[in-house]
Amino acid sequence: MEFNHFLSSFFPDPSYGGQRLYGDMIEQARHADALGYASVSVPEHHLINILLTPAPLQMAVKIAAETKRVKIVTSVAVLPLHDMRTYAGELIMTDILTDGRLILGIGRGAFPFELGRLGVSIDESREKFDESLNVLQALLTREEVSWEGKYYKFEPLTVMPRPERPIQMMLAAMVPDAIYHSVKRGLHIQTTPLQGSKEHMLEQVSAFTRGRDELGAAGAHLTLSLLRVCFVAENEADKRRKAELAYGYYERFDNVHVWGPGIVEHGVIKPLPPKLSVDELMENTLIGTPEELIEKLSVYADAGVDETIVNMNIGASQEETLGSMQRFADEVMPHFTKAGAANRDADLQSV
């Protein structure tokens, strides 16, 4: 199992400023690159002070210029908000400027406030996403593409420049049935149980595994990435403090997610009580000591998760977040990564 650091741009206090916010994210990307994380993820959200990255492809180019090897994943690009005729060209250019390190995570969008203010109904977002994905795939793989659909109608055109290489795509899906059917289409998957239980997470993983197994050899290359809030606490008291920060994060997230009322004023999300308590968040998320995280992540690895995306941006200071990244790399990752497994095998052979 590999690990991906989520550059989630949590912005609870707008007076902190965008310059500092994105400076922090770039510093974290450099840190992840140096510490051996396999990848970093960049969200796409607009008009709200959570997951605030309005231009993820721009951020990907900046990260590539500041790092040496990490892959850069969009988590996720909201296709219904873009015109695929221009987005395809932007995507190709980003892939070129990141030297092929880009992975395109895509989704329909899950924040009705955001979608609605930008002219897309949450009720039509699935249908528009499906057509947008079909158009995008056609534009990336064919020349002189024309289209006659519900959302796109255009005469033959060719996106330029042409792709240098196939761009890997991952589909965001949360409902187990949607995960299963997406895998059967031959798609890599990004998912998250959010603050849900271990049992819910295992249902999502099982849906992926079932779909991949039914594909046989044709599905052997497909991968599952799973996102969780995470923080490596220094002790029990610190663990509770970080869980309280996660509670504050979900006070905002739950408000604007598909099940929330979407109360936003001047771009600031009103904090509302989330679905779970602080104690429940400590149980369900990856907040804990290194030993506790190793125990929890062993369940993920045994279930078949290929990559865990860790969201440590929950309101702690930049110094604390960098420290958590360091502890995770030093004390947790070696138990699961390929390099860590090789080192453990060597240790066992020397006993």
Tell me what you see in this structure.
It is a single chain. The chain has twelve helices and 14 strands. It is α/β, with parallel strands linked by helices and 351 residues long. It has one domain: Alpha-Beta Barrel (TIM Barrel). Strand 11 (264-265) and strand 12 form a beta hairpin. The longest helix has 21 residues, at 236-256. It is globular, with a radius of gyration of 20 Å. It starts with a strand and ends with a helix.
Class derived from helix and strand content: alpha/beta
| Helix content, binned percent | 40-55%
> How many distinct beta strands?
14
Discrete helix count: 12
Helix-strand string: EHEHEEHEHHEEEHEHEHEEHEHEHH
Question: What fold name goes in the CATH topology slot?
Answer: TIM Barrel
- Under CATH, the homologous superfamily reads Luciferase-like domain
Q: What spatial order of strands do you see in the largest sheet?
A: 1-2-3-5-8-9-10-14
The multimeric state of the shown protein is: single chain
Bulk shape: globular
